[in-house]
Amino acid sequence: MTPPPTPSTRPAVGVNRSARGAGAPRVSPRRQQLLDLAANLFAERGFHGVSVTDLGAAAGISGPALYKHFTSKDAILAEMLVQISEELLTIGTARAMAAAEPRAALHALVEFHVDFALNKPALIVVQDRDWASLPDDAREQVRATQRRYVALWAELITQVRPGLTLVAAKAVAHATFGLINSTPRSSRLPMEEMQAMLRGMALRALDV
């Protein structure tokens, strides 16, 4: 699923230079507000259950006025999911590269991903449920970015658990994501308790 990793410039941590990504372009506050509103509506009703008129009403504008910011509802979904995949890759890579060694890097990645899932549950729901509604080009872009995010985790996992193959490490990473990303549907505890519980479960799943 993921292309072979390139040599790292920091062998102790093993983060691919190619995993840095270009990062998401700057988004104006108003455009980001519209994306956030759309994420909440899509999560609540589903992509196909929300109209341009609904989006405009939530933003306090007419439906057609939304086209000043986005060319279509599909474009909103595309930018939303491309943005979050790039955010995960860019910030996750930075956190891992700031760590002193692979085990610490995995701890940093777990903490970051848990916080992301708990603070942006609507985006987790939309990505999981409305993936098939993405335009083809956006789907390929998201998929490529996600592969690099998985590769970031997998390379670190193989350094901490040298008996694992890279393929097995990717499977471990995906299973850990599944555990963490289930929280929008299962969160019942106060935020701090949920964070602590998920971090502990994820680290045990990673066996680190």
TrEMBL record:
Domain spans labelled HTH tetR-type: 28-88
Keyword Cell inner membrane annotated: no
Protein name: TetR/AcrR family transcriptional regulator
Record region (Disordered): 1-27
A Pfam family that the UniProt record links to this protein: TetR_N
DNA-binding region extent: 51-70
InterPro entries: DNA-bd_HTH_TetR-type_CS (IPR023772), Homeodomain-like_sf (IPR009057), HTH-type_TetR-like_transc_reg (IPR050109), HTH_TetR (IPR001647), KstR2_TetR_C (IPR041490), Tet_transcr_reg_TetR-rel_C_sf (IPR036271)
Gene3D superfamilies associated with the record: Homeodomain-like (1.10.10.60), Tetracycline Repressor, domain 2 (1.10.357.10)
UniProt KW DNA-binding keyword: yes
Source organism per UniProt: Nocardioides yefusunii
Keywords in alphabetical order: DNA-binding
